[in-house]
Design brief:
This protein has one domain. It is built from 4 helices and no strands. The protein has 140 residues and is mainly α. The longest helix has 29 residues. It is globular, with a radius of gyration of 17 Å.
Length: 140
Amino acid sequence: MRLATQIARFAGVGALATLTHVAVAIVCEAMLGFAPQAANLAGFAAAVSLSYFGQGRFTFDTQLRHNWHAPRFLASALFGLAISSGLTQVIVVWLGAPFWAGMAVVAAAVPVATFVMCKFWVFQPISGAARKAPAIHSRS
């Protein structure tokens, strides 16, 4: 698959995951009475699940083996959170820039870092014992 196609698919899945996060969080808070942080966590969990399957199967056309790919995907998501938090700390807190400026840098940096991790590490072919795990087959 061409790089431009992967980038477009990655962006599309990411946008859908963001909408899912927000929609689930709003429903949980407004209709189900969840506390704000619990609602946000529910939205985040839904978005991460959608991203894992969407990026794995649609963007990178991978036969997912959860014991191999899921921990890597979770690690990449947590690394993205660390990048986001670190950039916010440096740009907004230490350098005194406006919050919107920090978020603009986060919005540019985190997707790039996440794409690179997914393409070259998370959804790479596997070998050895991990191959024995059941796969979810992608389209051929």
